[in-house]
Design goal:
This protein is of the alpha+beta class. The protein has a single domain (3-78), classed as Zincin-like (2-Layer Sandwich), CATH 3.30.2010. It has two helices and four strands. The chain has helices at 3-15, 48-65; strands at residues 20-23, 31-34, 39-42, 75-78.
Length: 79
C-alpha cells in the first residue's frame, strides 16, 4: 500500500468535513481526536491497518456528530 496516497486520501476525506489529519508523536500506537481543534492525530508507530479502522469509524462518527460537538473542548483517544 502506498502510504503517501493513503494519507492524501484521508486528508481529502476529513478536509471535506472541515477536519485535518496529521501524524505527530502523541503516544505509542494512538489516535487522538481533538474535537475543539478539529484534528485527528495519528502516532507514527500506529500500524496502518489499525489506523485505517479507527479513521473509518471517526470519519463516520464525525459526519453525524459534527454539529452537536462544535463547541466542545474535549478529545477522544483510541489505542
Amino acid at each position: 500500500m502506498d502510504v503517501k496516497h493513503w494519507m492524501r486520501d484521508w486528508h481529502q476525506r476529513f478536509g471535506s468535513l472541515g477536519m485535518k489529519v496529521i501524524v505527530a508523536d502523541v503516544a505509542q500506537s494512538c489516535v487522538v481526536v481533538d474535537i475543539a481543534g478539529r484534528t485527528v492525530i495519528l502516532a507514527p508507530s500506529l500500524k496502518l491497518t489499525s489506523a485505517q479502522k479507527v479513521l473509518e469509524k471517526v470519519y463516520a462518527w464525525w459526519q453525524h456528530q459534527s454539529t452537536r460537538v462544535e463547541g466542545e473542548f474535549c478529545s477522544l483517544v483510541s489505542c
